[in-house]
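Workshop exercise sheet. Pairs work together: one partner reads the sequence aloud, the other fills in the structure field after running the prediction. Swap roles for the next sheet.
Pair: D.N. / O.F.
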Amino acid sequence: MKARLSNYTSAKHLFAVIVMLLMNSTHVLAQQNPDALPNSENLQLYGEVAGFIPFQQSYRINYQTSLAGLPVQVTCGIGFPITPSLSSVLKIHYVRRTAVFVKDFRIKTLEIEFGVRDYLEKQHDNDLRLFGGAGLLLGKSSATGFIDATSDGSAVRSLEVSKDYYNFGLGVNLGIEYPLTQSSGLYIGINVDVYFADPVSNGGLGNIGGVSVGGGYRINI
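Structure field:
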């Protein structure tokens, strides 16, 4: 238990340093690049699809990501410009896991991310552009399955049961965007999410985070 808490504390310190570095780079870039985005005063909408690899070995062995028959998670979000290169971002992530060895058992996780998204270099026409971000994650997971239940000891029926779990964590991401127009673009990136609460030792789900790699579409409105 002490080792687990030590790992969580080290991870918190690491992510805190990353967030501070991102914010510092944002301040420098904002001074050097005041006209980074022609439409940076507009709201930004994001849509993403990504493959998901969980950190915990138990999730990798016993569960598979399955959403509408595809091994992906989906994300949608909205960005609010702060500077020409920096935006505050609200994202919603959804991933569904199905048990490999237990029929009709699944875990659905809905995550809300409050963070920032920062372009790490100047904009050039028809050229790739590096961006990074970090944020606080709040997650709700619902574990659902079927059990055999009876009220009189003889008539057995299948009953669906569910339990909710809550967690919090931190996430970072890094990606490359290609502009389609002055107000839209396609991007690919990698996201790393780590959760700290709801330990298995207390009957929780443990670290439900992982690494996701995928692509998305951004449009300014």
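Discussion prompt: Strands lie at 44-54, 63-65, 73-81, 86-99, 106-119, 129-150, 156-181, 184-195, 210-220. What would you look at next?
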